[in-house]
From TrEMBL:
UniProt keyword annotations, A-Z: Transferase
Protein name as annotated: GNAT family N-acetyltransferase
CDD domains: NAT_SF, nitrilase_Rim1_like
UniProt record similarity statement: Belongs to the carbon-nitrogen hydrolase superfamily. NIT1/NIT2 family.
Residues covered by the N-acetyltransferase domain: 14-212
Residues annotated as domain CN hydrolase: 228-484
Keyword Aminoacyl-tRNA synthetase attached: no
InterPro entries per UniProt: Acyl_CoA_acyltransferase, C-N_Hydrolase, C-N_Hydrolase_sf, GNAT_dom, UPF0012_CS
Organism of derivation: Mangrovibacillus cuniculi
Highest taxon of the lineage: Bacteria
Length: 513
């Protein structure tokens, strides 16, 4: 008679399952074993993971002991910068940015107890992730992987050289080599990914596994975005006692724009005529010449503000006396890198000639900035469509119009023309005006304005072609975002395509300069 062995006494029960709240203490102990010297999860982190996305939190259990785990969330990776950090992608470890409608499973951690690292635990966890991606019909799995052996080679090679050597199997890295064997491909190398990962010198390899079973279920897709934030200042003209008073007001608005992370802040036309309020010169033509004496202080002020507050400034406009003793109405671009450009007003109004004897400029400038090409067309200039078309042909995507008008009729001429230029040229236009009063200041005693940001009129743009507008005749700022990528798409595929559909065989604009 044979004795039947009880095989159950030899069994070791390996289970891959979802994490439970009761596992949290073991997970934190496991992390301390796996990553000594690095900050472990907090209980609140893991509780958040389980509350938000339990399916993405997986553990390996052997005979009732947690010996491995992995954590993940779902995102739309296109919404994140390729140079993101671990904190960016995990919401500082709490995964509150998890998006159930996203396309990508992002793995934020895998760990296996050091005593069980020859049992293919990591492989099993990765396979569980892949199965989850298939079940949820996700496009890919993305991970930011450590390169923990890099510290041994950092003195002799760059992170890129190290990764290449591991990829060619010349060097073994316990994480990167493992990921490559599991079907992940290298996307890029991210610096400063995990600040406390000293062994990797803070580097991480951005890796991706593509789900070949992915089935598109809608026409939803992501397109590139190129947002530019603009702060428009509707500036109150009021009596001041010194240039320092003017500088304080200007700095206040620049600070507001900077706090809002604006790329541009725009001031109105000839708002430096506010300086006339503390001058005792009554004759308008002489008062204007007095203002030109502040040109250097004006330029130094705005150059300093642009650099200090990290914002490009359209410095309204200012009357400048040049070597020929003629006075011009000039708008300056003060870039945040400290460089300066200028645009002369080309069309001078009858009023400017009569009261101040202003001379006309003769060049249409387009300026390079860190947010693409822009143009400045001062007040009356926006009412001449040829100028905007020339600027557009030179590459301008945004036309800034500082203006100063005394009544509603004058204001509406500027506004309607700015909106027309946006439609005609498929560009964004921005108008910034003065409000308030300057008593006892001839030709600047009253103001009327309602500033705004305008877009072409098509489905992807703001309703009515108005990105935003201020309330009329009160001092305030308008902050709005425009998207240069939408502009490019609409020029190519919009309902109408004014730039592409021009009849060059019938007409043309000849720019003599």
């Amino acid at each position: 008679m044979t004795h039947e062995l009880d095989l159950s006494q030899f069994e070791k029960k390996m289970i891959i399952r979802n994490m439970e709240f009761s596992d949290i203490e073991q997970i934190i102990q496991l992390q301390n074993e796996c990553f000594p010297g690095m900050d472990p999860w907090k209980v609140s982190h893991l509780e958040s993971h389980l509350s938000i996305f339990r399916e993405g939190q997986i553990v390996a259990e052997l005979d009732g002991k947690i010996i491995g785990s992995c954590s993940s969330l779902i995102i739309n990776f296109d919404e994140y910068d390729d140079r993101h950090t671990w904190d960016d992608i995990t919401d500082n470890g709490y995964i509150r940015n998890h998006n159930p409608d996203g396309y990508n499973l992002y793995g934020i951690e895998v760990m296996v107890h050091p005593d069980f690292r020859r049992m293919k635990i990591g492989h099993r966890l990765y396979e569980a992730r892949k199965e989850l991606a298939r079940e949820l019909n996700l496009k890919s799995i993305i991970i930011g992987g450590r390169i923990p052996n890099y510290h041994k080679h950092a003195d002799e090679m760059s992170a890129r050289e190290y990764v290449n050597s591991v990829s060619l199997h010349k060097i073994y890295d316990p994480v990167l080599s493992f990921q490559l064997l599991n079907g992940f491909t290298l996307m890029r190398i991210n610096p400063n990914y995990l600040p406390d990962d000293k062994k990797s010198h803070k580097y991480a390899t951005l890796m991706e596994w593509n789900n070949v079973d992915y089935r598109p279920t809608s026409k939803r897709h992501f397109k590139t975005s190129y947002p530019v934030r603009i702060c428009v200042v509707q500036y109150l003209m009021r009596q001041i006692k010194s240039f320092e008073d003017f500088a304080n007001q200007v700095e206040y608005f620049t600070d507001v724009a900077s706090d809002a992370k604006s790329d541009f802040v725009v001031f109105p036309e000839i708002f430096t005529t506010q300086l006339m309020s503390f001058m005792e010169e009554r004759a308008p033509s002489l008062a204007i010449r007095r203002i030109t004496e502040y040109t250097e202080e004006y330029i130094e002020l705005f150059t300093d503000l642009a650099v200090r507050y990290n914002v490009n400034i359209i410095g309204g406009s200012h009357f400048v006396k040049e070597e020929n003793d003629e006075i011009y109405n000039i708008s300056y671009l003060f870039r945040r890198d400290g460089t300066i450009e200028k645009q002369y007003k080309i069309h001078i109004t009858p009023n400017e000639r009569k009261w101040w004897g202003i001379s006309a400029g003769d060049q249409v400038q387009v300026f390079d900035t860190d947010c693409g090409k822009i143009a400045i067309q001062i007040c009356y200039d926006i009412e001449f469509p040829e100028l905007a078309r020339i600027a557009t042909d030179k590459g301008a995507k945004i036309i800034f119009t500082p203006f100063c008008t005394e009544d509603r009729q004058g204001y509406l001429r500027v506004r309607y023309c700015a909106q027309a230029r946006a439609v005609e040229n498929q560009v964004y236009t921005v108008i910034s005006g003065t409000v308030g009063n300057l008593p006892q200041t001839d030709n600047m005693d009253i103001q009327y304005a309602q500033s705004g940001i305008f877009a072409p009129s098509d489905f992807e743009f703001a309703r009515d072609g108005i990105v935003g507008e201020t309330n009329p005749n009160i001092e305030m700022v308008l902050i709005g975002d425009v998207d240069l990528e939408i502009l490019a798409r609409q020029r190519q595929d919009g309902t109408v395509r004014q730039l592409k559909d021009r009849r060059h065989d019938v007409y043309s604009i000849h720019y003599k300069k």
